[in-house]
Amino acid sequence: MNVSRLWQNKLFAGTVGASYARAIERPAAARVFGRLLFGTDVDRIYRAMDVVADLPDGAAVLDVPCGGGITIAHLKPGQRVRYVAMDISAGMLDHARRRLRPEQRDTVEFVEASIDAVPFPDDQFDLCVCFNGLHCLPDPAVAIGEIARCLKPGGRLVGDFATRGQVRRADAYMVLMRASGTFGPGGTLDDARRWFTEAGLVVEELECSGAITHFAARK
């Protein structure tokens, strides 16, 4: 099954997708899972999500794929930004909506769409966050090209993805996930550098923590 179509499946979203969302919402469990399987420091992912809290009032951010909405929770109370949470899965969007704090209901816009065909004009966003998503896509390079198109000049892309060739046990797990249709082909550290540069982005950070690569790039 095509990876994108699988994530659109309601049964899949309600089982596998919901299980992932619940796991990442529980830092203690996520730390154990991340260390044992990916050899990574999961707290680094949570810290990176704080980038949305640094946005000034009036800024626009695209969160894709937003999953269960965990990055939204890193917004500061009273922060006045345009926050677009986008995901191909209606089920994950529903999960994210349920997690909103009351004051966030007028701040966050939910969009059901694919990351490889972002439904926004050029130069719209000051920041895009893309956590734990690129390894699930059929073609990460196309997705990054779409994100770059939608960033304003000087806008940033921040996120992470599971990376091949870093941790043997993680590689084996990713093979199983690809066979099930849950993950796409993913990529190596060198692949990631190529994705960003071919999209016209300047790489500011590209660093592995175990099998998870953390990245930041600027248009």
From TrEMBL:
Keywords: Ubiquinone. The keyword Endoplasmic reticulum does not apply. One of its GO terms (molecular function) is S-adenosylmethionine-dependent methyltransferase activity. Gene3D superfamilies: Vaccinia Virus protein VP39. Residues 62-158 form the Methyltransferase type domain. Signal peptide: none annotated. This is Ubiquinone biosynthesis protein.
